[in-house]
Design brief:
binds glutamine, 5-stranded antiparallel sheet, single chain, alpha+beta, acetylation, 310 residues, Beta-lactamase, two-stranded antiparallel ribbon
């Protein structure tokens, strides 16, 4: 058995070169801004528990965070509701697409916080009182995870809000079931804006590292979350973070993660590191094709699989 590589010296440009030739997948076209993404973009970053952030070329290209925001919205909702969010949202994997128009049978709750129904609800549960207040709370909360002031791409936020018909449908369905207390349009507005927050792989890796380090941001030193909340969030990333591809992901990568339609993937390897990959072409389940390969390689070479080595 070869010895695992050391994350402190691991060659991320070499990893990027090894996955860049993969040409499979298609760029998301649900909104014009995503359809215009550069299919050749490929960046990787790692954030270590000692606060070191290491990155490949193209690590500073911003993309909208999209569904990679969902673990962090769940975290903020857990904090702001003092755990009540766990009663209001399920935590079981669905085996279905992220935007399936479906709620938990019997309860009408969203099935889990990593699919759109769940994230529409977590975004509605954070403190703030109204849309502006919740937007503000989310942007401040995400910035604490990233150890930098993040900003919103207002065009993306507008498009997500206007064109997110399935999200409007889900919000109305939750209203009908009595599981969403704010108006459907307010819920979509806040969720759409959260998806439109701009991150680069460095910022996203630090966000993942904050979860991996039990809620303490290793770059700023700030405790962003209680340790038990970080553990809950990472647990649900492990079971639901890659939607109907979560089982395959857990077997082949074995690191809790969250995928997104911008081609960003955030990784939280508990106690070891946070990581992120961005590459826009997606597979049928909405996961970055190069991102998946890069995560498989990283997991194998840095010995990150939670259930051990091959
Ligand atoms: N903006 C997207 C949406 O709701 C996010 C989806 C995703 O990244 N999977 O619908």
């Amino acid at each position: 058995m070869t010895r695992p590589a050391d994350a402190r010296t691991y060659d991320l440009d070499d990893l990027r070169d090894r996955v860049r030739g993969e040409s499979g997948g298609a760029v998301d076209d649900s909104i014009p801004q995503l359809a215009e993404a550069d299919p050749d973009l490929c960046g990787v970053a790692l954030a270590l528990p000692d606060g070191t952030v290491r990155a490949s070329e193209q690590a500073d290209v911003p993309v909208s965070v999209q569904s990679a925001v969902k673990p962090f919205l769940f975290a903020l909702a857990l904090v702001d509701t003092r755990g009540e969010a766990l009663d209001l949202i399920g935590i079981e994997p669905t085996g279905e697409a992220f935007d399936a128009i479906k709620l938990e049978t019997g309860t009408g709750r969203p099935p889990n916080p990593m699919v759109n129904a769940g994230a529409l609800l977590t975004a509605a549960l954070v403190d703030g009182g109204d849309v502006d207040g919740r937007n503000e709370r989310i942007l401040r909360g995400l910035s604490a995870f990233a150890a930098q002031d993040l900003v919103v791409d207002e065009d993306v936020a507008r498009s997500e809000h206007l064109l997110g018909d399935r999200n409007h449908a889900l919000a109305h369905l939750m209203r009908a079931e009595g599981t969403l207390s704010v108006s459907a349009d307010d819920a979509v507005a806040v969720y759409a804006r959260a998806c439109a927050v701009l991150v680069d792989v460095r910022a996203l890796a630090v966000m993942g590292a904050t979860l991996a380090c039990g809620g303490v941001n290793p770059v700023s030193g700030e405790r962003v979350l209680p340790a038990h909340v970080a553990r809950d969030v990472v647990s649900v990333m492990a079971t639901c973070g890659v939607y109907d591809g979560s089982g395959r992901w857990m077997r082949s990568v074995g690191v809790p993660a969250k995928s997104s339609v911008s081609g960003a993937i955030v990784l939280a390897a508990p106690g070891a590191l946070g990581g992120a990959v961005v590459s826009p072409p997606l597979d049928d389940q909405g996961t970055s094709v190069r991102g998946r390969i890069a995560c498989e390689v990283l997991s194998a070479e840095l010995d990150l699989h939670v259930f051990g080595r091959r």
